[in-house]
């Protein structure tokens, strides 16, 4: 037999480049058989190989029992492999763990420090509440082990035990504290304790306040920078509770800041000052002022210029903390922080962005967003370039082929900036949206610019991950956060709804984007841009603003078969009849034969497109499709029946086409509603929602089938919904406001123009220019393009030219001197350029707030709710936050909060689980002793009989005696009194009774059977009685250990079976 | 606390994985590959901190406003260091000092260098048990217990002799030398004087 060692395995792996998968499968097969062998060496080697393969990603959970076997090996080097296997491969659901309890107990009690270290090091990875409960007693004595290494590891392991089983702390904390207070303790143990205290500190700071003097002492003359860092972090959580600490801490911290050569310590000092709220204002103002300026100047030094990138990063972290409490201190550093946005290091950029998000104002919004847009644009350009290059190659990301892929990547790596990762791009886009829409667009000055930015964003938005992965419609992304292009689309929709003044450009932008989606993408591919959904709604709702409803309808019809997401499809379906109603519903135009045939064709086309959707698996889609198909079929009939008007005969178009269908979609204008406003709708008096609508509803419904209701069109109800309210025009303010606004446009335009060009696509810029020209043509104060000579084109000139036509002789008209004291039309542009922007300028644009009712509940009319993120987005965010609490690698410590460490709160009779456990153990030992005693008695009786009968004594009973652990019985004796006195926890009472009962039950049997020749069978019975007690105790594996013949699987094959059964 | 300590090479092959919470093997691998993509795209001269990989970020990296207590419990730093062909990664919560973590990785590498005398990637490949042992002397259950080089090395040696890579492993010998030199060069280069 020839076995591979780990070395052979690895060398084999290196020699089988290319077909590693096959090789690994072979190895796994070998390991499977090897690990079952009886030879411990072979077993351990196989396990080691499995651990190696696990690291590369090959599951070994199936081998958990074999891991236990190797753990119980007598040889240290094998045991070590076993423990490593347990650490690396055991998962929360590994069920063999409960069998390891006794093994762990035994190894914890070993004499060799290296051996003790194995279970101590492994426990943090394995521990469960029940395991913690049963091992606590064995672990605690290790706190006073003679080896410092064992002591410090034990401290940490106890901390991890406490996380899953908080009661640990009650028993362990006094001892740990004792270690911490001991000035002669090994400094590395003290450091480890400080680390643990720091971890515990933020969870329950009040418990550690009494330690402050000792901790302070350690900070001042500890001389260990690692420990000092932790201490400062700990103090930062303590100072908010004990303000007097601040005065004490300030001198040493300032001293450290000024003197320490270690950057990490310096930074943590500053960080501690910030986090501990020491910067906060209070008494002793001058000293704090000094500290604050010291910190901020140090941080500024870290951020600015060519300093070390790591320092830049941590300084930004610190600024991020300061900004919540002292925004003005951070605002002073705006210049250096903005520089970091353009850093080529993404980590730094993100942190800078976090900061910047809190710093936006109407003054800097445009410049910040422009910076970000430039980055995104450059990245998407680089990406498309790269994709062109990679198009031929297939992108396989097989782990075994990683090397090759990497080599390719390296070879490809261009000199210019690499494209940004999608996640980052999405993140930045989300931030742009947040910044712009903050506080219901409080910072937004120029909505036209915003719409252009949004249009550009949709073009460069990466395809969301979810849609890339599962392109089958069944696995829809309904539950997930909307992808970024949908968010951008939502923004366009929000602007269109909320800002009436810019509704026309917003709708036109939506129209353009839709036509672009239609033309740009390959017609066979499914539509992936999530933006289509909100944009479809916009073009449907504001159909009268469209440039060409006809074309848009055509685009939409083209897109429908390519849409896969059912939600999107449902929205788009609703849009089509809206568009159709607008296109077809003109009741002024004559019903000519030409119109008739166009309409018939159009309706046929729509029906043809919708028809397949009548069988759509998503009910919403199906329902809407069926409704519209039927409606259109009806209209088709009506249209067919209506003869076209001829020269002589005037024919009206069918009413269904011009009246009925359009009336479905015209009515009140929709406003944005605050999230939660629905809950504030009061229930009308006398409305009982639980009451059945009609006592005899069933029969009514049955009758309804053969009842035809007459169609009423012009009732009150219809009027209510279909009559438009008087339009409240917002955009038409006093003329003077316009005067102020328009030049502002010029001013911003002139200095943004070059920047804009770099991040907006050429066509957007061109359109933007054209639109501006168009808009300003009627504006008397706007000086048109530079092609005209400045001298002649006064505003008056413009007006005159407009009024009188271009062919008038302008020079013949005398120039009138206008005496306007406010904005002088002639040099207005320049004036605005130099003067600071007036805040009043943007008040012209009215942004509607979300509608809500009342002021209570979640829909309260506070600015927070005005954040124009739509409902679903906020919801997704909060959901994500919730998820985060349960995130990967997260260590749940919530139980720890409930525990009180205060010794005064302890009631003496309050049985704590640990002590209860000890008591139970003692009780068990007591019961065992009782049984043992009885057995002995019995044995003696038996001996007497046997002696009398001349039969030799059998050894079985003696063997039983050995199994009983001496420590348990000793503990039992000690605790006996305590058990009698202390009040039992509720749980223990029945257990005790059972045990007593069993013991009592055993007694009469013994006595009854004494002297009989069938002694051996009685013994067996008794053994069973004991065992049953064990079983009744349920999952308490501790007791399992006391079963005769032992629960240890250490023995390997034979003994193991007994405890497992 | 420290949530995970990872070592992988320049092509993303793991050399050491240690997670201080129990995690499925497949998720471990996904996390490693996500971090690898992040780490391998770093431009030269960037800082030693990575943005959170998507798997850890959950709601993107934009959760700057979550409360302090919440942050303390959740992995928030991914610190890495590159030595020759290897990347050393530490995932940690905000209770750790980011700059000190950079030092911690340095200590770990120096300890390995002492144990193996002129360490190179091959040593780590063939002695991954020693890698675990060394880490076990520095971090237990996600808490740093030792940062002193001598004690760490002594602790590992107490567990048994550390063997150098098998001498007859001849292939790629020249590359090895270069790697080792890389290690050496980096070994002396202290950026942070945390200790």
TrEMBL record, chain A:
<dbReference type="Pfam" id="PF01602">
    <property type="entry name" value="Adaptin_N"/>
</dbReference>
<feature type="compositionally biased region" description="Polar residues">
    <location>
        <begin position="825"/>
        <end position="837"/>
    </location>
</feature>
<comment type="function">
    <text>Part of the AP-3 complex, an adaptor-related complex which is not clathrin-associated. The complex is associated with the Golgi region as well as more peripheral structures. It facilitates the budding of vesicles from the Golgi membrane.</text>
</comment>
<feature type="compositionally biased region" description="Gly residues">
    <location>
        <begin position="1048"/>
        <end position="1061"/>
    </location>
</feature>
<keyword id="KW-0175">Coiled coil</keyword>
<feature type="domain" description="Clathrin/coatomer adaptor adaptin-like N-terminal">
    <location>
        <begin position="20"/>
        <end position="635"/>
    </location>
</feature>
<feature type="region of interest" description="Disordered">
    <location>
        <begin position="959"/>
        <end position="1061"/>
    </location>
</feature>
<keyword id="KW-0653">Protein transport</keyword>
<keyword id="KW-0333">Golgi apparatus</keyword>
<dbReference type="GO" id="GO:0005794">
    <property type="term" value="C:Golgi apparatus"/>
</dbReference>
<keyword id="KW-0472">Membrane</keyword>
<keyword id="KW-0677">Repeat</keyword>
<comment type="similarity">
    <text>Belongs to the adaptor complexes large subunit family.</text>
</comment>
<dbReference type="GO" id="GO:0010008">
    <property type="term" value="C:endosome membrane"/>
</dbReference>
<comment type="subunit">
    <text>Adaptor protein complex 3 (AP-3) is a heterotetramer.</text>
</comment>
<feature type="coiled-coil region">
    <location>
        <begin position="914"/>
        <end position="951"/>
    </location>
</feature>
<dbReference type="InterPro" id="IPR017105">
    <property type="entry name" value="AP3_complex_dsu"/>
</dbReference>
<keyword id="KW-0813">Transport</keyword>
<dbReference type="GO" id="GO:0006623">
    <property type="term" value="P:protein targeting to vacuole"/>
</dbReference>
<dbReference type="GO" id="GO:0006896">
    <property type="term" value="P:Golgi to vacuole transport"/>
</dbReference>
<dbReference type="InterPro" id="IPR011989">
    <property type="entry name" value="ARM-like"/>
</dbReference>
<dbReference type="InterPro" id="IPR002553">
    <property type="entry name" value="Clathrin/coatomer_adapt-like_N"/>
</dbReference>
TrEMBL record, chain B:
<dbReference type="InterPro" id="IPR011012">
    <property type="entry name" value="Longin-like_dom_sf"/>
</dbReference>
<dbReference type="Pfam" id="PF01217">
    <property type="entry name" value="Clat_adaptor_s"/>
</dbReference>
<dbReference type="InterPro" id="IPR022775">
    <property type="entry name" value="AP_mu_sigma_su"/>
</dbReference>
<protein>
    <recommendedName>
        <fullName>AP complex subunit sigma</fullName>
    </recommendedName>
</protein>
<feature type="domain" description="AP complex mu/sigma subunit">
    <location>
        <begin position="1"/>
        <end position="159"/>
    </location>
</feature>
<keyword id="KW-0813">Transport</keyword>
<dbReference type="GO" id="GO:0012505">
    <property type="term" value="C:endomembrane system"/>
</dbReference>
<keyword id="KW-0472">Membrane</keyword>
<comment type="similarity">
    <text>Belongs to the adaptor complexes small subunit family.</text>
</comment>
<dbReference type="GO" id="GO:0006886">
    <property type="term" value="P:intracellular protein transport"/>
</dbReference>
<keyword id="KW-0653">Protein transport</keyword>
<dbReference type="InterPro" id="IPR016635">
    <property type="entry name" value="AP_complex_ssu"/>
</dbReference>
């Amino acid at each position: 037999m020839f076995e591979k060692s780990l070395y052979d395995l690895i060398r084999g792996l290196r020699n089988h480049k290319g077909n590693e998968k096959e090789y690994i499968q072979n190895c796994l097969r070998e390991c499977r058989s090897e690990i079952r062998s009886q030879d411990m060496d072979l077993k351990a080697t196989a396990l080691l190989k499995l651990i190696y393969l696990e690291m590369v990603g090959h599951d070994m959970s199936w081998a958990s029992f074999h891991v236990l076997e190797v753990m119980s090996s007598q040889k240290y080097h094998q045991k070590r492999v076993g423990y490593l296997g347990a650490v690396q491969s055991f998962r929360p659901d590994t069920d063999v763990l409960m069998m390891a309890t006794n093994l762990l107990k035994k190894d914890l009690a070993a004499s060799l420090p290296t051996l003790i270290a194995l279970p101590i090091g492994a426990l943090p990875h394995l521990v469960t509440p029940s395991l913690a409960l049963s091992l606590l007693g064995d672990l605690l004595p290790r706190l006073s082990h003679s080896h410092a290494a064992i002591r410090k590891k034990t401290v940490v392991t106890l901390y991890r035990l406490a996380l899953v089983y908080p009661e640990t702390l009650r028993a362990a904390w006094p001892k740990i504290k004792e270690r911490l207070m001991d000035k002669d303790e090994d400094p590395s143990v003290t450091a480890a304790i400080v680390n643990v205290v720091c971890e515990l500190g933020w969870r329950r700071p009040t418990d550690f306040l009494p330690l402050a003097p000792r901790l302070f002492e350690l900070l001042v003359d500890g001389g260990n920078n690692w420990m000092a860092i932790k201490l400062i972090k700990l103090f930062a959580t303590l100072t908010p509770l004990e303000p007097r600490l601040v005065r004490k801490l300030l001198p040493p911290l300032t001293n450290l800041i000024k003197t320490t050569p270690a950057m990490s310590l310096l930074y943590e000092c500053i960080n501690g000052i910030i986090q501990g709220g020491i910067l906060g204002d209070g008494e002793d103002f001058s000293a704090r002022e000094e500290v604050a300026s010291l910190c901020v100047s140090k941080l500024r030094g870290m951020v600015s210029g060519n300093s070390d990138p790591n320092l830049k990063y941590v300084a930004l972290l610190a600024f991020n903390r300061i900004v919540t409490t002292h925004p003005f201190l951070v605002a002073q550093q705006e210049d250096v922080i903005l520089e970091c946005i353009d850093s080529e290091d993404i980590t730094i950029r993100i942190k800078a962005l976090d900061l910047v998000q809190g710093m936006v104002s109407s003054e800097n919004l445009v410049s910040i967003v422009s910076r970000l847009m430039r980055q995104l644009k450059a990245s998407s350009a680089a990406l498309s370039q790269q994709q062109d290059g990679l198009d031929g190659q297939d992108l396989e990301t097989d782990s075994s082929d990683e090397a090759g892929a990497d080599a390719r990547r390296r070879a490809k790596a261009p000199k210019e900036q690499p494209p940004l990762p999608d996640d980052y791009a999405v993140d930045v886009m989300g931030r742009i949206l947040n910044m712009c829409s903050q506080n219901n667009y409080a910072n937004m000055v120029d909505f036209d610019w915003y719409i252009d930015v949004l249009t550009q964003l949709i073009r460069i938005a990466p395809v969301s991950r979810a849609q890339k992965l599962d392109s089958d419609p069944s696995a829809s992304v309904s539950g997930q956060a909307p992808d970024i292009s949908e968010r951008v689309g939502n923004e366009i929709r929000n602007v269109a709804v909320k800002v009436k003044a810019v509704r026309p450009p917003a709708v036109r932008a939506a129209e353009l984007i839709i036509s672009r989606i239609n033309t740009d993408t390959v017609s066979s591919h499914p539509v992936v841009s999530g933006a289509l959904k909100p944009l479809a709604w916009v073009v449907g709702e504001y159909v009268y603003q469209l440039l060409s409803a006809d074309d848009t309808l055509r685009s939409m019809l083209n897109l429908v078969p390519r849409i896969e997401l059912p939600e999107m499809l449902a929205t788009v379906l609703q849009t089509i009849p809206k568009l159709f109603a607008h296109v077809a519903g003109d009741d002024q135009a004559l019903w000519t034969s030409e119109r008739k045939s166009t309409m018939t064709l159009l309706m046929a086309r729509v029906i043809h497109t919708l028809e397949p959707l009548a069988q759509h698996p998503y009910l919403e889609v199906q329902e809407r499709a069926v409704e519209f198909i039927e409606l259109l079929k009806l209209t088709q009939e009506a249209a067919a029946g209506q003869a076209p008007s001829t020269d002589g005969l005037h024919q009206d178009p069918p009413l269904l086409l011009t009246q009925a269908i359009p009336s479905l979609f015209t009515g009140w204008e929709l406003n944005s509603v605050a999230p939660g406003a629905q809950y504030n709708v009061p229930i009308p008096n006398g409305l009982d929602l639980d009451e059945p609508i009609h006592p005899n509803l069933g029969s009514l419904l049955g009758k309804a089938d053969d009842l035809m209701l007459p169609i009423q069109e012009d009732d009150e109800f219809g009027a209510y919904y279909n009559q438009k309210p008087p339009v409240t025009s917002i955009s038409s303010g006093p003329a003077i406001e316009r005067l102020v606004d328009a030049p502002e446009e010029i001013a911003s335009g002139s200095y943004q123009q070059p920047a804009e060009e770099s991040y907006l696509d050429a066509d957007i810029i061109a359109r933007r220019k054209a639109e501006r020209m168009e808009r300003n043509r009627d504006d008397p104060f706007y000086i048109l393009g530079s092609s005209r000579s400045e001298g002649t084109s006064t505003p008056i000139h413009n007006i005159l030219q407009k009024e009188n036509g271009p062919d008038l002789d302008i020079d013949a008209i005398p120039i009138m001197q206008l005496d306007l004291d406010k904005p002088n039309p002639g040099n207005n542009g320049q004036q605005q350029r130099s003067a600071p922007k007036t805040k009043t300028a943007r008040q012209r644009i009215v942004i509607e707030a979300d509608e809500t009712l009342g002021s209570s509940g979640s829909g309260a009319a506070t600015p927070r709710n005005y954040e124009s993120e739509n409902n679903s987005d906020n919801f997704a965010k909060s959901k994500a936050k919730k998820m985060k609490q349960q995130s990967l690698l997260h260590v749940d410590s919530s139980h720890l909060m409930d525990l009180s460490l205060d010794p005064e709160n302890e009631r003496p009779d309050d049985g704590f689980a640990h002590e209860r456990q000890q008591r139970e153990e003692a009780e068990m030992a007591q019961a065992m002793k009782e049984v043992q005693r009885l057995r002995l008695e019995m044995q003696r009786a038996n001996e007497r009989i046997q002696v009398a009968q001349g039969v030799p004594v059998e050894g079985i009973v003696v063997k039983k005696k050995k199994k009983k652990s001496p420590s348990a019985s000793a503990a039992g004796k000690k605790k006996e009194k305590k058990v009698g006195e202390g009040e039992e926890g509720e749980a223990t009472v029945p257990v005790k009774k059972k045990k007593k009962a069993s013991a009592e039950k055993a007694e009469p049997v013994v006595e009854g059977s004494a002297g009989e020749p069938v002694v051996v069978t009685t013994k067996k019975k008794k053994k069973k009685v004991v065992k049953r007690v064990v079983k009744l105790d349920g999952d308490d594996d501790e007791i399992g250990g006391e079963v005769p013949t032992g629960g240890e699987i250490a023995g390997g094959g034979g003994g193991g079976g007994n405890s497992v059964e | 606390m420290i949530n995970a300590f990872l070592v992988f090479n320049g092509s993303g092959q793991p050399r050491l994985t240690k997670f201080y919470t129990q995690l499925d093997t497949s998720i471990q691998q996904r996390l490693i590959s996500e971090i690898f993509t992040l780490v391998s795209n770093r431009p030269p001269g960037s800082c030693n901190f990575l943005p959170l990989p998507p798997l850890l970020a959950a709601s993107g990296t934009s959760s700057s406003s979550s409360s302090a207590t919440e942050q303390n419990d959740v992995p928030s730093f991914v610190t890495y260091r590159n030595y020759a062909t290897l990347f050393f990664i530490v995932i940690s919560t905000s209770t750790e000092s980011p700059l000190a973590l950079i030092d911690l990785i340095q200590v770990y590498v120096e300890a390995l260098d002492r144990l193996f005398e002129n360490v190179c990637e091959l040593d780590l490949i063939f002695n991954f048990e020693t890698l675990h042992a060394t880490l076990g002397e520095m971090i237990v259950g996600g808490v740093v217990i030792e940062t002193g080089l001598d004690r760490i090395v002594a602790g590992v040696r107490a567990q048994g002799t550390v063997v150098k890579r098998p001498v007859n492993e001849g292939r790629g010998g020249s590359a090895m030398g270069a790697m080792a030199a890389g290690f050496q060069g980096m070994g002396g280069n202290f950026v942070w004087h945390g200790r």
